[in-house]
Amino acid sequence: MTSPLNATLAPASLPELADLLPDPLIFLDRRGRLTHVNRAAVTARTPASDLHPGQPLPGDPGAPLQQHVSRVLTEGGSARFTYQDPCGLWFDVYLTRTSSGALAQFRDVTTQTDATRAASTLAEAHQLLERQHHQLEAINDDLNAFAQSVSHDLRAPLRHIIGFTDLLRRAIVKADPGATERNLSVISDAAGRMNLLIDSLLEFARHGQHALRLQPLDLSSMVRAVQHDLTPDTQDRVVIWDTRELPTVTADPTLLRQVLTNLLSNAIKYTQGRPEARICVRAQRSADATAVTIEDNGVGFCPEHASRLFGVFVRLHPAHEFEGVGIGLATVKRIVTRHGGQVSATAQPGQGAAFTFTLPHAP
């Protein structure tokens, strides 16, 4: 938008010409008081619509319009900015210094502004639907994997209970005390494992229902607190911690602590048997997220199995070597995904493993 009139002309010579122009025009003296407004300015409800000559523009001196007027009157030059009137109309304002004060031209851009905002709102709605669609797909994938895992892992102890109950019945008929004791022991172990699996499933489900309470968290302090909690697991062992200075992240404190507990306890567990266990926690910030890596020198695993690690009840090592039900890493993935991040793992058999999760700066 260019100035409608030559700024060197005195406003007193322009009233009739100004009234012919379609854009609202406001003339001000050197003190910022009104000297003239054209007809379009009155019709368009500009700041001077209800004023008489000699009155200052209404509003707080700190308001954008008054600030621009004051600057142009003091320093000269011109200014261009957007102004919204009390009725909600938007104007593109061109303000310029004149020989006797200042001249402000208002151009109604309400239609363009509304269209831009509508387009922006539509784009945001589309992005929201995209995110929800991806979230629903991820949830559906989790449900399918969950159903398959449950059907497989819960059936195993049930088969033990059913099979050994039948053997127990036969042993009782044959009056074989030794066989009866063995069968009862297997049945008890199978029932206990089923109970543990069910408890783990309930805990896994609760993490999906926990409402996120996001806040800035000192990652270094939280790692030290989790280390302290895990002290009983490192008794009579040599464990060297390398917890470097870690940044502040945005996350839910309860859920992030669960992620760190699961990953650090895994590192402790899978370094059993090492003369000297080494566990390193490091973080790297990028433009939009922080990547946290927990690395150990434990037994590791085959890289081709990395994509399976975060499923429910997935175990890559025999239960008699390392205890657990295979729910910890699935919980880690669920929590990190809810924060808008990602989780991954790299390893080599016998050479340790590294687990990395990301936390967006603005989840």
UniProtKB/TrEMBL annotation:
GO terms for molecular function: phosphorelay response regulator activity; phosphorelay sensor kinase activity; protein kinase activator activity. InterPro entries: BphY/WalK/GraS-like, HATPase_C_sf, HATPase_dom, His_kinase_dom, HisK_dim/P_dom, HisK_dim/P_sf, PAS-like_dom_sf, Sig_transdc_His_kin-like_C. It catalyses: ATP + protein L-histidine = ADP + protein N-phospho-L-histidine. Pfam families: HATPase_c, HisKA. Its EC number is 2.7.13.3. Residues 149-363 form the Histidine kinase domain. GO terms for biological process: osmosensory signaling via phosphorelay pathway. CDD domains: HisKA. Keywords: Kinase, Phosphoprotein, Transferase. The keyword Kinase applies. PANTHER family: BACTERIOPHYTOCHROME, TWO-COMPONENT HISTIDINE KINASE. This is histidine kinase. It comes from Deinococcus soli.
